[in-house]
Amino acid sequence: MFFDAHLDLLKAAAEANRTRAAWTGYAPITPPDVEQADAFVGAYDGATLQLSSSTRTVITADEVSPYTGKALDVGYSAPSADEALAGAAGAAAALRDAGIESRVGVCLEALHRIHRRGDEFAAATSHTTGQSLGMACSGSGTNALDRGLEAVAMAWAAMNRVPESVEWQQTFGRSEVKLRKRFRPRPLGTALVVACASFPAWNAYPAILANLATGNPVLVKPHPRSVLATALAVGVIREVLTEAGLPADSVQLVVDTTDDPVAARLATDPAVRIVDFTGSPTFGTWLERNVQDALVFTETAGVNTVILDSVGDLSATMRTLAGGLSLFSGQMCTTPQNIYIPDGGVRTDAGVVSRDEVVAALTSAIEDIATAPRRAAAVCGALQSDATLQSIDALADRAEADGTLIRRAAPYEHPDHPQARVVTPLLIRVDPRRGDALPAGEQFGPVAFVIDCADRESAVEHATATIRSHGAISSYLYSTDDAAVDAVADAYADAGASLSVNLVSSMPMQYAAAYSDYHVTGLNPAGNATLTDESFVAGRFRMVQDRRQVEA
Amino acid sequence: MFFDAHLDLLKAAAEANRTRAAWTGYAPITPPDVEQADAFVGAYDGATLQLSSSTRTVITADEVSPYTGKALDVGYSAPSADEALAGAAGAAAALRDAGIESRVGVCLEALHRIHRRGDEFAAATSHTTGQSLGMACSGSGTNALDRGLEAVAMAWAAMNRVPESVEWQQTFGRSEVKLRKRFRPRPLGTALVVACASFPAWNAYPAILANLATGNPVLVKPHPRSVLATALAVGVIREVLTEAGLPADSVQLVVDTTDDPVAARLATDPAVRIVDFTGSPTFGTWLERNVQDALVFTETAGVNTVILDSVGDLSATMRTLAGGLSLFSGQMCTTPQNIYIPDGGVRTDAGVVSRDEVVAALTSAIEDIATAPRRAAAVCGALQSDATLQSIDALADRAEADGTLIRRAAPYEHPDHPQARVVTPLLIRVDPRRGDALPAGEQFGPVAFVIDCADRESAVEHATATIRSHGAISSYLYSTDDAAVDAVADAYADAGASLSVNLVSSMPMQYAAAYSDYHVTGLNPAGNATLTDESFVAGRFRMVQDRRQVEA
Lengths: 552, 552
Fold this sequence. Notes:
Largest sheet of chain A: 7 strands, mixed
Strand content of chain A: 15-25%
Number of helices of chain A: 18
Helix content of chain A: 40-55%
Shape of chain A: globular
Oligomer: homodimer
Structural class of chain A: alpha/beta
C-alpha cells in the first residue's frame, strides 16, 4: 500500500540517480520560530521514548541544548548489546520475507512522515546538534530526506536489475535440458548504524533505509549527546513498520553513554554483518581494521583544501568562502580548512591582488557575518560540543604565541539565545616553508589555515599530499584558467579526491546534492562509503536461487 | 580497436546477464588428442616464462603431471612481494588513464585469444590440474571464458550506468546556479588474485578481468603446483596489453613455493586494495579476518548436500548422481558430498525403493563408470594432489574399521596413462542418530557420505545446520512433490544456500552456467564472492567528480 502511494516519487528518484540532474523529492520545510522550537523540544522533557522492545532499561541521555544550555531530560530505552541483537534476530525473518515492495514502501512512507513533521524534527536537531533552525530544515531536513530517498532508490534499482525468474534451456550431448530458475534477493544480516553528534540525519538516513529496503534489521546508535532527532526518526520508522504488519524491532534505537560505549562491542559481534559509521577518523579506522567479515562503511573526515589561483570578482569569492568557513561553525565534513594563496597573490578581473589584501578581504567578509547577529545565527548556528570550543581556543592561543594568528574565533551575539555556545571562524596564517606548524588532519569546528605557497603548482602538490595522508571529503579551486582547472582536477582525482571549481554564489560551497554529487570517494583516507554509488547498496543483499528441471 | 571488434559480443553478454537466459560467447573447443596434449606441454619443458618485468628471479615450479608423473620443468619469473608491488604501482597510472573502452577491449581480446588457443590451454590445464582433456576444454575452457566475459560485462555495465557528465541547475535564494559536473570511474588500487590448484581458470578469469576492466593492476598468484595454465593466460593478457599500448605489468604472475608462500604477505600489504581468493576455507577465513581495509572476495568450500525424497526414474537419477560424484574426481567446489536417504526409502514411479536398494543402485551406477576405462577417464580425470589420495585412503581405512565403508575409492584403468593418479568415488554410510562420525566440512576429492535419516524434514534440518556451520556452494534435492520443493527451497534459502532440484539429465548436476547461475551466495561460510553479482564489481572502482560553476 505504502509502495504504490509513493511509486511515482521512487521512479523519479531512480531517474534522477541515473541522470544526476538537479531534483528533489521534498518541498522546503518552513522553520519553526524560536518559541515553537522550544515547545517542540519541551514536549519531550521528562518523557521516555521506547524504541526497542527488547529491554526495560532506560537511559536519560546527557543531552544539553547548545542554544539554551538546558538539559533536554529525555529517556530512551537502552538495550544491551545482547538484547539489541536478540531483538534484531527476532525481527529478521519477517522483515526478510516481507518482500522488496513492502520494505521499500515502509522506507518511503517513513521519509514522507518525517517530512510532514519537518519543523518538529528541525527543532530537535537544532537543540541537540547546534544547527540553526534553517539549516536543520534543509541540511538535516529536505537534503537528508533526499539522500535517504536516493539510497532507497539505488537499492530498489539494484534489486530490480535481477529478474525474478527465467526459463533456461541448453543442449547437453543430444538432449535439451530445461530449467526453471528463481532468483531471490536476501539480506546479509543485522546492521549497525552509528551516527555522529553534529549532523546525524544526512548520513544515517541513507544507511538505515538502504539496510531496511534490502531486508536487514537495523540497530541505530546515535551519539550519546545527540539522540533526540535520531530517536524521533527511529520512532517514525517503527510506527510505519507496525502499520505495515512488520516487526517494529526491525529498527531499534541503541543508546549508550560516553563512559560505557557500546558501538565497538556491537560492531565486532559476529551477528553484526553490516556497519555504517559516521564520526571520527580514529574510530573509523579502528572499525575498518577490527571488524572482521562484515561490510564496513565509513565516513570520517579529511582536510578540505581551497586553492586560490585566479578569480573574477574577489569580493564575491571571499563572501562565498567566508560563508563556507562560517556555515554551521565549520562542523560539517565538507567545510574548507586549508586555504592556499600563492606568493604572487591572486589574479582578478581588477588586476593582481596581493596575499595580504586577499587575507584582509577574507577577514572582512567573515566580520560582515560575525557582526550581523541575525545573519550570524542563521549561518553559524552553535557549537555542538564544549570540547570543540576548547580545542579552538587552544589552537588560537598557540597561534598567538607563534605569531600566526589572524583572527580569533570570537563569539557573535545570538539574537535569541544569549547563552548559546557560539563562535565565528578562527583564522591562522602559516608558511610551511619556514617551518610553521600545520596540524595533521581535520581540526573540527570553524578553523581555517591560510597557507602561504610559492605558486599554484606547489599548492596542488602540498594539498594532494595532505589528501593522500589525511583524506579529503570536499576540495575547492578558484581559477579562471580552464587548462589549469583540468590539470588540477586530474591531480586531485589522482589523489582520490573530487573537486569543486569557482563556486561563487548563494549556494553554500560545501553543498552536496543528493542524486547528483557523490559524497566521499572511497579513494582516500576520509572514508570508504559513497553516498550513493552502487557499492553502497550492492553488498547489503545477495541472491539465492533455485533451479528446477522441468524437461530433459 | 579491440573494443569495437568485440562490442557485439560484449553487448550480448550484458544482455544475457540481464535476462539470465542460456547463452555462450564461445564455440566449443575440440580437445587435443593425447599426443598433441603431450606436445603442447612438452613445448614448455625447460622454458622460462617471463611474466613480470620487475624481477630477474626465476622459480622452476614444482609441477608434476597427474597423468604422466613427469615434472613439467617450467621456469617462471618470480618477483618478490616488493618487486611485484612496485611493478603494479608503475603500471597503475597508464592503466587508469587508458579509459574504460581500452581496458575492456584488452579483456575481450585476451578472452578471444585464449579461446583460439583453447586446445593448448586445455593440455596445460589437464597436465597440472588433472582435469580430463574434455573437461579442460569446457569447465576450464569455454565455461571459464564465459565466466570471465560475464564479469567483464558486469563491470562495463556498472561503469556505464554513471553518466560522464551533467549540466546541473538549481535555484538558491533568488539566483540560479548552474554547474557542469564530470563523473569519472577510478580504480581502487593494486589487486591480488590467488588461484587454486585444481580449477584455476573458472574463478581467476572473472577476478583478473573485473580488476583490469575497472583499471586495477593485478598480481596473479597461482598455486605453486599448478601454474602453467594460469601463466599462459597471464602471458596472453600481457601480450594484448602491450599491443594496446598499455604496460604489460598491468598483470604480473607471482610464483611462490609451498615452503615460502607469498600470498599472506601480499594480501596484508597496505598497497593491496583488492584480494580475490579461491582455495581452502582455512586460508579464506584467515584472509577475511586479517586483511584490513581492502576488499576481500573469497570462494572456499562447503558441504554440498543431496536429499533423496522422491524421484520418477531411480536408475536415471542414480546415473546423474554417480556422474556428479565422479566428475573430475570430486575436486570441484560444487561436487555433492552428503547424501540423505530417509528411513522409509525413496518414492519412485515404480513404488517405494528401500534405502539399501537405493545405495545399491548408486554403487552400481558408480561401478558402471569405474569399469569403463574411456568413460572413467573422461569423467573422473586424475587427482591433482597426492595429499588428496592420502586423505581419501585414510577416510576409507577409518570407515572400514567403523563398519561404515560401502565402497573404496578404487583406481580405474586409465586407457592412455597407466601412471595416472586416478580414483573413483569413496562411499561411506553413516547414521548420525547412532553416533557415527561425520567429518566437519568439506572432504576434498570423490568422497560421499550416505546419511541415514528419519525423513525429509529431518534431512533438511540436518543439512541446513551443516550449511550454517560449514557453508555450501551447491545443494541438491530430488522430490516430485512441488509443495515440498517450495518448502525445502525456502529452508535452504533461509540458511543462505541455493538449491538445484530434480536434475536428471546429461547435464552434469554441478554445472553452473555463466550469465545465469549465481555461484556462491555470500550468505553462508563457503565464501563471500558471487560470480557474478553487482557486489563482485561495484567496489573495484569508485567515482571522482569535478563540478565547475558555469553560471550564477
